[in-house]
Specification:
Elements: E1 9-10, E2 13-14, H1 21-44, H2 49-75, H3 86-102
Antiparallel strand pairs: 1-2
Length: 103
């Protein structure tokens, strides 16, 4: 691949529309979600403590990156999350409190 070509052209192929910043951020967030899911599985299924600890460190780092990407997208209005209604918060809280007291 020749990196000295025009930005819209790679090896004789014209790229019609490069990804914009929002699309790159969407892709980054999706990738981070996949990475954290994968590292979580590795961590849960690891039988060697020192390897598990290292996976936990990596998982924490990946969650931090995911959080930063999410926060940036939210600030820019690219990822809208509606505020939870107080009634639904109370219902969820009561549900989990009753479950934890039963078991």
């Amino acid at each position: 691949m020749n990196f000295n070509q025009n930005p819209g052209q790679v090896s004789g192929t014209q790229v019609s529309s490069p990804m914009g910043e929002r699309e790159l951020m969407d892709d980054a967030l999706a990738s981070q979600k996949y990475m954290t899911d994968t590292y979580n599985t590795y961590t849960n299924e690891c039988v060697t403590q020192n390897v598990r600890d290292e996976f936990m460190n990596i998982l924490s780092e990946e969650h931090q990156i995911q959080s930063e990407v999410f926060d940036t997208m939210k600030k820019r209005g690219w990822y809208n999350v509606p505020d939870a209604q107080q009634q639904k918060i109370q219902q969820a809280k009561q549900k989990f409190q009753s479950q934890s007291s039963q078991g």
